Amino acid sequence: MTLPRLARLLITLCATAGFITALAYWWLDNKTHELIGCAVLVLVITHTIINRRRFARYFTAPLTRRKLMFFLINVSMVLGLLIVATTGIAISQSVFLGWIDWQAAAPYPLHYTAAYWVAVLMGMHLGMNWNVITQWFRPYAQALPEILVTRLKWLFIAAILMLGIAGVVKLNLAAKLTNQPTLDLWDFSKQTPQFYLYWSALLGLAGVATRKLLK
User: Fold this and answer.
1) Cβ neighbour number for residue 84 with a 10 Å cutoff
2) Of 14, 26, 60, 87, most Cβ neighbours within 10 A?
3) Given this model, what pLDDT does residue 170 score?
């Protein structure tokens, strides 16, 4: 893998891991949450700048279903990130030094609901760029027997589907996306790895579903 491709892969992985970590607000202190959020925003902007030429191709004629989906998914994700960023500043304890009751602030529900939608859209974005992602690992796959690569691929997809569906239930995603009040709090003292596993699989599930819609 060339250095530029490795850098792109690391930026994507760090942005995704950082965003999932930021979702674990009750595991972090507020300052750490805000610093991670800022870092993710910088990584997303960097990712966009690096890939600007490839993204620009999707906004040229003729209009296809893939281009339309790309436009809708990415514009929605950008709007979601803007909502997360602006509401995050509005309720920030670091910026406003406790001048407002951040838990009672109106932007707070909008902040975390938008964040959950952005997570799903990030998964869909990965699905839109499935071919680009697989190109990073193709040189290694070529060194293995084709039958083994095929079986590993389907095993990986099956694991994503099963864990992703389990994640929808375990993380109570429907309630989070619709801003429904719940009493469930994740036990980070015992289930931190599971939190990352389910969220990663959930993003993968959104990616696989998006990939399927493109066929």
Assistant:
1) 24
2) 87
3) 93
Closest to 15 (Cα-Cα) out of 77, 59, 89: 77
Contact 28, 195 (CB under 8 A): no
**Crossing angle for the helix pair 107-128 and 130-141, nearest 10 degrees?**
50
The confidence score (pLDDT) of residue 103 equals 53
Q: Give the per-residue pLDDT at 178.
A: 93
The CA-atom distances, in angstroms, between 200 and each of 50, 83, 119, 123, 207 are 24, 22, 10, 9, 11
- Which of 61, 52, 54, 118 shows the shortest CA–CA distance to 84? 118
pTM: 0.88
Average of per-residue pLDDT values in the chain: 86
Task: Find all residues with CB under 8 Å of 138, minimum gap 6, and list them.
Answer: none
Ramachandran angles phi, psi of 140, nearest 5°: -75, -35
How many angstroms separate the Cα of 109 from the Cα of each of 91, 116, 168, 184, 209? 11, 11, 20, 16, 27
Distance CA 201, CA 185 (A): 19
Judge whether 161 and 205 are in contact, CB under 8 Å.
Answer: yes
Evaluate if residue 176 carries a pLDDT over 60. Answer: yes
Nearest-angstrom CA–CA distance, 47 and 76: 17
Of 137, 184, 117, 109, residue with least CA distance to 13: 137
CB neighbours (10 Å) of residue 30? 13
